[in-house]
Amino acid sequence: xxxxxxxxxxxxxxxxxxxxxxxxxxxxxxxxxxxxxxxxxxxxxxxxxxxxxxxxxxxxxxxxxxxxxxxxxxxxxxxxxxxxxxxxxxxxxxxxxxxxxxxxxxxxxxxx
Amino acid sequence: xxxxxxxxxxxxxxxxxxxxxxxxxxxxxxxxxxxxxxxxxxxxxxxxxxxxxxxxxxxxxxxxxxxxxxxxxxxxxxxxxxxxxxxxxxxxxxxxxxxxxxxxxxxxxxxxx
Lengths: 112, 113
Known about the structure:
The complex is a heterodimer. By secondary structure, chain A is mainly β. Chain A is 0% helix and 51% strand. In chain A, a hairpin with a 3-residue loop joins strand 4 and strand 5. The mean pLDDT of chain A is 95. In chain B, a hairpin with a 6-residue loop joins strand 4 and strand 5. In chain B, 31% of the residues are buried. The mean pLDDT of chain B is 94.
């Protein structure tokens, strides 16, 4: 039981490049989330998915797109990376009947 | 607008002392208040949580105190240990089953020998 896994662990991009951050969970959770963590800003919700086939915007969705590929996988795409998107990105998942969110180990992204 | 305000930003406590982190919220619809603990290089993990029908919840050395009228809640770590050194986030959400957690800005706690 791996929990929530994220790939890659670290990525360097140039401004304007695109990339997809991958997230998968093996806990049969219904809901999945993408957060970004910046110094002094805490964790801010980018997008979430309450169930397979649905996605909703969070607090800071601009510049990002998401895909809930199936129940296990939730990806985050940066179409044209900007330096302001330099951050640590966390994926999380939750069982609908419970309130606890389980976080992955994070992806550190640097946009030059 | 920050809906959950957390203080202090950083805290240094001597081993064996009491660590106290405070949070204040604005949305009176919030009804679930968790604290998450994050070690360097790791994702946050749930430490302890409280619902507003009780004023205090204790799990081992960790206690949440909740003041509904003041819209404040705090985390107390008794007998603080070097292994407690981490970043702590308070959070809040409204309506059981609601999808969104609103996090505070975090407190970096350092326990010194």
